[in-house]
Write a structure and sequence with these properties.
mainly alpha; two-stranded antiparallel ribbon; 2 strands; elongated
Amino acid sequence: HDPITQVLAGQDINLNEFDHHTGPDALHCAMIIANNPYTAAKVFHFIICTIIEELMGITVPKLRKGSILQHQGIFSIVEGYVGTVEAQG
């Protein structure tokens, strides 16, 4: 039911004037995500990257594979970071 998820799924939602009471219902939102697994993966990636960046101060640049940028996050300076991916199927 998240409006950001719906925007990433290509729905035309004005986030500046979004009202969750008048927006699409939960079933409609769930159907959009169920029919578009790529969007679900994009949303998951966005949320995880935002958490890692804001809480831990770790940014993984898109163009510099294998390197990270560090700054102080909520938990001070992180000394180590390992990003893992679980393969499906």
